[in-house]
């Protein structure tokens, strides 16, 4: 029974990682690519790590995989934030499509400082 659960978790995790890769290739703008890169990929890795822990069934494996998952969940949103902010500053994000624009004042202040 555990083997069936492991296979299902690995297949779902691999499918999520595949959809993340396809999303990076197919989506056109930065925010949707960032969403495709972070959300399904992190969940896919989580499911694959759970499947590995269930398959091997030892606490040592679970203790080894826990930091892997925590680092992934800490770095994926952080890197997406940094890439998104830089894309905004470069002007590659369509500012009219944003619902909330918290960086508009900062961008105007940076442009004014650069003009001086």
Automatic annotation (TrEMBL):
Transmembrane segments: 6-25, 45-70
Keyword flag Translocase: no
InterPro entries: PhaG_MnhG_YufB (IPR005133)
GO molecular function: sodium:proton antiporter activity
Keyword field contains Membrane: yes
Keywords: Membrane, Transmembrane, Transmembrane helix
Family in the record: Belongs to the CPA3 antiporters (TC 2.A.63) subunit G family.
Name assigned to this protein: Multisubunit sodium/proton antiporter MrpG subunit
Source organism: Microbacterium telephonicum
Taxonomic lineage of the native organism: Bacteria, Bacillati, Actinomycetota, Actinomycetes, Micrococcales
């Amino acid at each position: 029974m555990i083997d069936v659960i492991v296979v299902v978790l690995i297949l779902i995790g691999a499918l999520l990682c595949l959809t993340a890769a396809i999303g990076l290739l197919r989506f056109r703008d930065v925010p949707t690519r960032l969403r495709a890169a972070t959300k399904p990929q992190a969940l896919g890795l989580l499911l694959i790590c759970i499947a590995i822990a269930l398959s091997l069934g030892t606490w040592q494996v679970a203790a080894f995989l826990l930091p892997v998952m925590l680092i992934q969940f800490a770095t994926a949103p952080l890197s997406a934030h940094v890439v998104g902010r830089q894309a905004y500053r470069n002007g590659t994000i369509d500012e009219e499509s944003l619902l909330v624009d918290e960086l508009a004042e900062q961008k105007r202040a940076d442009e004014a400082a650069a003009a001086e």
